[in-house]
UniProtKB/TrEMBL annotation:
Family in the record: Belongs to the imidazoleglycerol-phosphate dehydratase family.
Provenance organism: Diacronema lutheri
EC identifiers of the protein: 4.2.1.19
Protein's UniProt keywords contain Cytoplasm: no
Pfam families attached to this UniProt entry: IGPD
Protein name: imidazoleglycerol-phosphate dehydratase
Length: 216
């Protein structure tokens, strides 16, 4: 069962801890804060969180631990996964037993921390404040994000397929499983609340599609 720890905040900042079994994720968000290390156990996911930092002007720190052992920023949690990568997708998935839980907990912790960081600004925002919409290009890819934290809960996500080669899209970007991108944003939205829509306008490269989404 998942256990969510205390969600703490001060003006312009928030933090949250979520746990499931042996896996624990702690997230901190500071508006206009300094860059912090991110260690999710999946290096490409760390890189994607860095896009939220640079494009959202947020200080974000995410620390994941497995069995009480903290992950390191530039180290994949399943070192044997790199060897399995040269084999079949099934072998790679088997070598990485915690991927789904990591995406879920990172989304939940980050969403709760973002909610805390935004609370003070929302309390002072004008009543006429509506949705924010941004389109982010990255080479051939363009994605659109719409966020309204005062709206009723609504989530829409349309990024698939992740690229055009193969025709069904890529399953993996390195050791990052593309199908879990939706899962992360679903869990983040569930903790953050409001309206969130993430839409691919165009894109042929899986890496560019995913990265443009985090930037937007």
């Amino acid at each position: 069962a998942m256990r969510e720890g205390k969600v703490a905040r001060t003006a312009g900042s928030g933090s949250a801890v979520v746990e499931r079994g042996a896996i624990r994720c702690e997230a901190t968000v500071v508006d206009l804060g300094p860059k912090m290390p991110n260690a999710t156990g999946i290096c490409f996911l760390n890189h994607m969180i860095d896009q939220l930092v640079s494009h959202g002007q947020l200080g974000i720190g995410v620390q994941l631990s497995i069995g009480g052992v903290p992950c390191e920023p530039e180290v994949d949690y399943a070192l044997q996964g790199a060897a399995a990568r040269a084999a079949t997708p099934e072998a790679l998935a088997h070598a990485r037993p915690h991927d789904q839980t990591i995406f879920e907990l990172v989304g939940e912790a980050l969403g709760a921390a973002l909610r805390g960081a935004a609370a003070d600004a929302l309390s002072h925002a004008p009543a006429t404040l509506g949705a924010s919409r941004f389109c982010a290009p990255l080479d051939e890819a363009v994605t659109e994000a719409v966020v309204d934290l005062r709206a009723a809960s609504h989530f829409a996500f349309s990024l698939e397929p992740y690229g055009t080669i193969p025709p069904a899209g890529r399953e993996w970007i390195g050791l990052y499983r593309t199908a879990y991108t939706r899962l992360l944003w679903q869990r983040l939205h569930g903790a953050l609340g409001g309206r969130m829509e993430l839409l691919k306008l165009r894109g042929a490269n899986a890496h560019h599609i995913v990265e443009a989404t985090f930037k937007a």
